[in-house]
Design a protein that fits this description.
The longest helix is centred in the middle third of the chain and has 13 residues. The chain has a 7-stranded parallel β-sheet. A 5-stranded mixed β-sheet has the order 1-4-3-5-2. The termini are far apart. It is of the alpha/beta class. Helix 7 packs parallel to helix 12.
């Protein structure tokens, strides 16, 4: 494997780590040509184990024979670009918290219908745009019993660098997919897949999360809405259940990532 010392941070082969926007990396028109960036040895290893194809590594010099060595062995014959921390920060524009980045090919998108077939509990994200929230929700979904995650097309990309890092690589551990098309009616699609819809919303007629009726359902889709406005009215009206988390001390709600963890734990398949 070639170890390449960086002498010119403007070199075009380094564009994937420094100068391509997230939209350019993603390549929406041709997803199979898209790229994502995984950060830290642990996250990169999870991505490799999940079958993602590495393109190039960027790492601090001290990691070549340290934390990055097992990753280099796993990646095979791809270029490893290296420099000291100051040069890498100048190149990427941010501090590499774990000193190792890997550019990878985006995996083939999964079908929403296919991942629903054998699932009993799924998380549904509608218009959640903050990458930190996306990453945290994926981590909770993987840890707390969700079988899969479905996203509307207005959600933040789960394979953006920050979402991957916050998720601690769990975006590679739990199946996820986008709804079939941008205008897909969430509740109708889920009901056709055999799920009862649980709209997480602050409504006077909402039932408590520990309601026995919820736990008795064979297949539940837990729908979480945007950070500011929550779920759209038509989603709530067409859901099978509207559910809220009981609050104390006059607190009106939790952050969507925190709320997801509570909901996933309470509504997991027992």
């Amino acid at each position: 494997m070639p170890i390449i010392e960086i002498t010119d941070i403007t070199a075009p082969e380094l564009d994937i780590f420094a100068r391509l926007t997230q939209a350019q990396l993603r390549n929406k028109l041709e997803p199979e040509k898209g790229i994502f960036i995984a950060e830290s040895p642990k996250v990169i290893s999870l991505a490799l184990t999940a079958g993602c194809t590495p393109i190039a590594l960027l790492m601090e010099q001290k990691h070549i024979s340290g934390d990055g060595a097992p990753i280099i062995r796993q990646c095979g014959e791809i270029p490893v670009y290296t420099a000291d921390r100051a040069v890498l920060e100048q190149l990427t524009g941010y501090q590499l918290t774990r000193g190792v980045l890997c550019a990878m090919k985006r995996p083939t998108p999964l079908s929403a219908a296919k991942i629903c077939q054998n699932s009993h509990r799924i998380a549904v994200l509608d218009g959640i745009v903050d990458s930190t929230n996306i990453g945290a929700i994926f981590r909770s979904a993987a840890a707390l019993g969700m079988d899969a995650v479905l996203l509307t097309h207005s959600c933040c990309d789960p394979l953006c660098r920050r979402a991957i890092r916050v998720s601690m690589g769990t975006v590679f551990l739990i199946p996820w997919a986008y709804f079939p098309h941008k205008d897909a009616k969430i509740t109708t699609f889920l009901q056709e897949m055999g799920f009862k819809n649980v709209a997480m919303a602050l409504r006077e007629d909402a039932i408590s999360m520990d309601d026995p009726a919820l736990k008795a359902e064979e297949k539940l889709a837990i729908i979480l809405g945007t950070e500011g406005d929550g779920l759209k009215q038509n989603v709530i009206e067409n859901a099978d259940y509207t559910v809220c988390i009981p609050m104390a001390h006059n607190v009106d709600s939790l952050n969507v990532a925190a709320a997801s963890a509570v909901a996933f734990w309470e509504l997991r398949k027992r």
